[in-house]
């Protein structure tokens, strides 16, 4: 027990001694980025066109739906693993998993359709 504690203390001290070296190596990057800090908030960057903004919003929404899908699939798997042979619990788990797969297909189709439409709109505006 004492050996493990000593090794742990030595590892913490080694990391603490390396921290200033790592911070010093990052100093140039931080200083160069500080000049760019206000540019995005004051609008000196290139404008973002409406179709691009809508595409970003759709991508964020589909990402959130992907997280919900992950929850549905994990919950269905949990129900299936803890069913213990009970037919109603197994059916409930299968329903959750089936709904998750249907949701996955809908999300993938929505992503592909929205990507296609947004790219067509951007190409028509650009030309």
Explain what the structure shows:
The protein is mainly alpha-helical and 127 residues long. It has two domains: 2-39; 48-126. The protein is 87% helix and 0% strand. It has helices spanning 2-34, 37-42, 50-81, 87-126. Helix 3 runs antiparallel to helix 4 (87-126). The mean pLDDT is 77.
Q: Helical percent range?
A: over 70%
Alpha-beta content class: mainly alpha
Shape: flat
The total beta strand count reads 0
Distance linking N and C termini: 71 Å
Number of helices: 4
Low-confidence stretches: none
Label this structure with key terms:
4 helices, 127 residues, flat, 0% strand, 2 domains, single chain
List the helices and strands and how they pair.
Layout: H1 2-34, H2 37-42, H3 50-81, H4 87-126
Helix pairs in contact: 3-4
Give a short synopsis of this structure:
The longest helix has 40 residues, at 87-126. The chain has 127 residues and is mainly alpha-helical.
